[in-house]
Amino acid sequence: MNQSAVDEVLARPISQELLTRDLARMAFVALDGTPRAIPIGITWNGSEIVMCTAKNARKLPALRRNPAVALTIDTEAHPPKVLLIRGQAELDVVDGIPEEYMQWNGTYEMTPEQRAEWEAGVQALYDGMVRIVVKPTWAKLIDFETTLPTAIEELMQQQKQRQSA
């Protein structure tokens, strides 16, 4: 998929809405060769999805060996809205707490006192983190109104062709 097609999918209003969510599911290949899908906090910076994790997270050796990832960001309402993204994970070890980590956690409802307590706990726990950065190289939006899963789109196209024959 070329970058302009990816950008077109990501620019759609529903995609933009989904990119403001703070939780995705990330799939990758574990060290033993089996697939893994995990929930992970995300921040969209306009061109990349940034996720943060502990420096000793078990997913990091797997991502270093095979950086290919797939992300799903979706809603719970019917019909669901689903944004599928693929790309390569770049790992960036940083001292302290990345701003993206503080941003995505900031969307939860906390009183100012709870927020201050949470931030103090984060600062005490981590001396650094790893930023997992994914620039989308493929994207598909499924809203079940204007876009559908590829298999259903293909079946509908075949049905139209039979009807017009």
UniProtKB/TrEMBL annotation:
<dbReference type="InterPro" id="IPR011576">
    <property type="entry name" value="Pyridox_Oxase_N"/>
</dbReference>
<protein>
    <submittedName>
        <fullName>Pyridoxamine 5'-phosphate oxidase</fullName>
    </submittedName>
</protein>
<feature type="domain" description="Pyridoxamine 5'-phosphate oxidase N-terminal">
    <location>
        <begin position="18"/>
        <end position="102"/>
    </location>
</feature>
<dbReference type="Pfam" id="PF01243">
    <property type="entry name" value="PNPOx_N"/>
</dbReference>
<dbReference type="InterPro" id="IPR012349">
    <property type="entry name" value="Split_barrel_FMN-bd"/>
</dbReference>
